[in-house]
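ARCHIVE CARD
Drawer: 12
Card no.: 0347
Subject: one protein chain, sequence and derived structure
Cross-reference: see card 0346
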Amino acid sequence: MSLNRGGRRRRSTNENLELRARTLQFIKGWEGIISLSVLAVVVVLAQGILKLPMPFGIGEKPPVADAWGYVMVPRGANPKVVFVGDVSNGAKIDASGAKQGVEIALKELGKIQETTVELEVVEDACKAGDAATKARELADDPRVIGIVTQACGASVESARAVYEDKKLPYLALAETKPEITPQGTMATFRMRANERVQGRNAALFMRQDVPTQRALLLHDGAPSAQAIAEAFRTQYRGMRGEVRDLRQVSLTENFDALYQDIKTLDPDLIYYMGGGRTAAETLKALLERGYSGRFLVTDSAYADASYNTIGSVLEGTYATALQPARGDRFAFWKEAYEKDNGPVGLLSPEGYDAAAILLQAAARVAKVESDGTTKLGRQAMVGNIRSVPYTGITGVMGFDGNGDRSALTATMMKFENGQFKEAAAPVPTPVPAPAASPIASAPERAGP
């Protein structure tokens, strides 16, 4: 029996040696090379199709660095959203309800990688220099992921330059002036309409629905008024209307001379862009001298008591009004809000939506490094805000290439029977092609 076992062992050893020799011969031969090559191709294709991980990190691409750099929140520290509120002229910081809206959004959505986001509140006294200084301080704070502001216009514009330079998300709740989001704006966004939309909407309505043919544009010299005039002129002329002139007027205007020019120019529409007092005096003076065409004013006059209370002379005149946007969710949200917080403030919905957009964008891009640092790409955050649709309390939101809300319009109003009433359904604003932007698009998101 021992001899049999020894013989079997020798045969087994010989067979193993023979198998190894054949294997080596196969590998070195053409058949082996071709077979191994085919196997390698199959493995690579399978990995690409099935997304199977390769061993030892083979084939993995290194992450692309954010072109604008990163917000780096240190380990153990909490990210911060900053709310800036106007306290000039003795105002209470949350008179508008904006701060309360931000706080509610933080309560519902204030987690980034399981870390609680804190709120820092900054009081703004409407001093542009101080606003810029504070903005530099906040922009250098490694914990700050973005700013929601309800500061006065001068402070918003001054701080904007700092945040644009640092590419830190900056969301303005109430500002409507065109100069807040000029061409090339990257990190600044507005929650209400750009005043410029009045010009486009007015041109569409007055040319198509009234209709008129020959417009004279009067303004008070303010940059925003001139921007509205330019938007009107572009749209009106594109619809084969004529803009007879664009000129500045004031309370010291020689209205006799102005009316003589109007008789020569023969407009059937005068569109005044400026404050209520000058609008009222201009309208009364022209009517007294015999003007019988259409008269239209911008929101600056419409919202000014010195214009809309001058009585029967307003009968038949028009206005473009910028009204707060409120979406389908507003009624339900308002009911829930008021159970816990009392009446909804003027800017509570804007405050909530601004904070929600910022928090969701930050949560999407945040990564935790091996040392515990929370890393948020600046371009990635801004790209999420700009590119990912969001349905909020103020409606469906999207931003164009300069940070303006692309879906907002002005409402056309007409003074009839002693009061302004909506003249027609708001005219959809033609949305221009977005400005060239280095920001990549991102997937769609739902509202909170």
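Annotation on reverse: Residues 2-28 form the longest helix (27 residues). The chain is about 40% helix and 20% strand.
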